[in-house]
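hiii so um. not sure if this is the right channel but i have a protein structure encoded as tokens and i wanna go backwards to a sequence. like what aa goes where. can anyone help
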């Protein structure tokens, strides 16, 4: 096996920061929040059915009259404002039903948004603690590999100098191969754990 050095980086953010990043960046959370916002807007529209509708219209005019023989110019300005109020008094049952339906949709969308957010935060916690575990295991595997390499080096020197046996050297070689295998597997688990953190935070 070829030794591939791995640099174990510390987690750049705390769990709280990762959770905040997930709530901000994850598309599923943003979509749920948008649906809740839309439902809230529909509820506001439904509530407006209880209120009177006010409409205002205005107009302005100007007329200029000249009397050349008397050298008189006469300007006449006129303006008008028309206001109207429309209140559907006998539609209370329909408005109440629309409001009730809109409130139900708002509550449902709010519940969905909370469920999506809670699941996302749970995924972040799982990925974060798995990452910490794999970081520690990779460090242990690296130290075990270094120890196996040193033991093989010493046994090889003893064998070459006639102080060690071939069996000792073979055992050291087997231990070194196993340490390399374990380190490679742990390295892969570490990379996957780091990718899971990135995925969970969006």
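sure thing!! here u go:
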């Amino acid at each position: 096996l070829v030794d591939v050095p791995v640099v174990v980086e510390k987690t750049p953010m705390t769990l709280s920061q990762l959770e905040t990043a997930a709530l901000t960046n994850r598309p599923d959370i943003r979509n749920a929040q948008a649906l809740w916002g839309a439902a809230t807007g529909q509820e506001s529209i439904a509530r407006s059915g209880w209120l009177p509708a006010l409409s205002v219209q205005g107009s302005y005019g100007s007329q200029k009259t000249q009397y050349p023989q008397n050298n008189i110019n006469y300007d006449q300005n006129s303006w008008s404002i028309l206001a109207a109020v429309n209140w559907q008094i006998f539609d209370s049952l329909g408005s109440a039903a629309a409001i009730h339906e809109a409130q139900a949709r708002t509550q449902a969308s709010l519940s969905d948004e909370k469920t999506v957010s809670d699941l996302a935060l749970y995924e972040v916690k799982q990925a974060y603690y798995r990452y910490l575990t794999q970081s520690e295991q990779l460090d242990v595997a690296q130290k075990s590999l270094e120890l196996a390499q040193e033991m093989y080096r010493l046994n090889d020197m003893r064998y070459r100098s006639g102080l060690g046996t071939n069996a000792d050297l073979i055992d050291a070689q087997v231990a070194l191969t196993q340490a390399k295998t374990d380190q490679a597997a742990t390295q892969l688990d570490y990379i996957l754990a780091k990718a899971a953190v990135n995925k969970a935070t969006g």
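oh and Residues 8 and 135 are 7 Å apart (CA to CA).
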